[in-house]
């Protein structure tokens, strides 16, 4: 190459009579132009060959991995390697008379080569990330965190390599010098390191998956986990807002994961109605006769009344006063009615706990809690089932001569409590 350049230079100066500087400039531009055309042809041929081969190979295979490589541009980036290497080899021949320019261009091309390698790896990692997310086994795993860690390491190595190239220092010596600053690096990347450790622990212990419903009051998060990254966890709340919380918060702070509920056979219903204490009383004979018309508790009242009557007779209880001996109460019978009603409800899971219980009395009255599990765990359906049960319970209260507590706005707070 150098002989051809000198021959052209001599022809321009001796044959055509051009000045030395002009002849040298034209010589360099001409050789550069010819080599640029050659590089463009090489790049075009290489790119067409690699991309065509990749597409043909991807169409013949069943796996989607090679299709994703094409999608993320890996073949196109690989096709740049050969032209860049050729250009790097050509620089000494084109600019051999300009050592400073030659050295600068070689350094620049090596820097470009480092960036090209990083972009190729990034394309492959993106392909791996998307491919694993299409796999059922890894769909709910924090793959993004691991990909980001690898990319972070690659960028650190790339910038360290670029600094070593620019400073003309051996790579090993450069990293030996860099090791002295490791404490500063640890401080700078503290959150990243904590996030990476948290991602590993979350993945190994299987505490949170993508798609889980979590609640973390500290950060105002209450919704579905969309993404687990190296530094943040993205949660879409039920009002469609997005909350980003630190990844390491999943191992340092308390939160609630509703996966146990979604994986179980039912979603819990746990709500109470408050019965006014003054409406609670013993049932008399005519009350029991009226309540026996309610089909759900007809058999219960008959058997229970016989049992109570037998006990009172055996113990010669004086029933002229109703409180003596054993008796039925309206709240007790109502509690039994709710038990039968909830157990017979078609939307309640019969294999899980069903319980109607009294909570400790309050200044407002006696709370009567319905505790059961809805078979349908979808939010809208769950709310409908729970409302259906309590609609019935609230409407049924008056049949047992009970009253629901509610504040009378016309009275003062003291008067409302006393009444």
UniProtKB/TrEMBL annotation:
Q: Which GO CC annotations does the UniProt entry carry?
A: plasma membrane
The molecule here is called Small-conductance mechanosensitive channel
What Gene Ontology molecular-function terms does this entry list? mechanosensitive monoatomic ion channel activity
In terms of domain of life, where is this protein from? Bacteria
| GO biological process per UniProt | cellular response to osmotic stress
**PANTHER family hit by this protein:** MINICONDUCTANCE MECHANOSENSITIVE CHANNEL YBDG
**Sorted alphabetically, which keywords does the UniProt record give?**
Membrane, Transmembrane, Transmembrane helix
Where do transmembrane segments lie in this chain? 25-45, 77-96, 108-125, 146-165, 171-189
* Subcellular location, principal: membrane
The cellular location(s) given in this protein's UniProt record come to:
Membrane
Q: Which InterPro entries match?
A: LSM_dom_sf, MscS_beta-dom_sf, MscS_channel_2nd, YbdG
Q: Where is each Mechanosensitive ion channel MscS domain found? A: 191-259
């Amino acid at each position: 190459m150098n002989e051809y350049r000198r021959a052209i230079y001599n022809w321009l100066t001796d044959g055509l009579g051009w000045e030395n500087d002009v002849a040298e400039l034209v010589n360099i531009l001409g050789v550069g132009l010819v080599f640029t055309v050659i590089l463009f042809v090489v790049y075009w041929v290489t790119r067409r060959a690699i991309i065509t081969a990749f597409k043909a190979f991807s169409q013949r295979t069943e796996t989607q991995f090679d299709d994703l490589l094409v999608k993320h541009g890996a073949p196109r980036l690989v096709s740049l390697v050969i032209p860049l290497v050729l250009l790097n080899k050509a620089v000494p021949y084109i600019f051999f008379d300009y050592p400073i320019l030659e050295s600068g261009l070689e350094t620049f091309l090596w820097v470009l080569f480092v960036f090209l390698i990083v972009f190729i790896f990034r394309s492959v990692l993106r392909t791996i990330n998307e491919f694993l997310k299409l796999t059922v086994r890894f769909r709910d795993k924090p793959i993004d965190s691991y990909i980001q860690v690898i990319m972070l390491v690659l960028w650190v190595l790339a910038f360290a390599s670029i600094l070593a190239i620019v400073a003309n220092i051996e790579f090993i010596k450069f990293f030996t010098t860099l090791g002295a600053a490791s404490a500063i690096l640890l401080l700078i990347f503290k959150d990243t390191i904590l996030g990476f450790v948290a991602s590993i622990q979350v993945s190994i212990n299987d505490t949170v998956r993508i798609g889980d419903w979590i609640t973390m009051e500290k950060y105002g998060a209450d919704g579905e986990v969309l993404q687990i990254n190296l530094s943040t966890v993205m949660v879409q709340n039920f009002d469609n807002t997005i909350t980003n919380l630190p990844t390491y918060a999943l191992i340092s702070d308390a939160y609630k994961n509703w996966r146990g509920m979604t994986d179980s056979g039912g979603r819990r219903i746990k709500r109470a109605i408050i019965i006014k204490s003054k409406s609670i009383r013993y049932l008399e004979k005519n009350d029991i006769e009226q309540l026996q018309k309610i089909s759900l508790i007809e058999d219960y009242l008959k058997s229970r009344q016989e049992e109570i009557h037998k006990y009172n007779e055996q113990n010669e209880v004086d029933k002229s006063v109703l409180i003596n001996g054993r008796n039925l109460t309206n709240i007790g019978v109502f509690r039994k009615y709710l038990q039968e009603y909830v157990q017979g409800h078609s939307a309640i899971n019969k294999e899980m706990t069903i319980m109607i219980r009294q909570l400790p009395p309050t200044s407002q009255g006696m709370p009567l809690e319905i505790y059961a599990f809805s078979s349908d765990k979808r939010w809208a359906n769950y709310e409908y089932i729970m409302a259906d049960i309590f609609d019935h319970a609230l409407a049924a209260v008056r049949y047992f001569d009970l009253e629901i507590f509610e504040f009378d706005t016309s009275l003062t707070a003291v008067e409302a409590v006393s009444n």
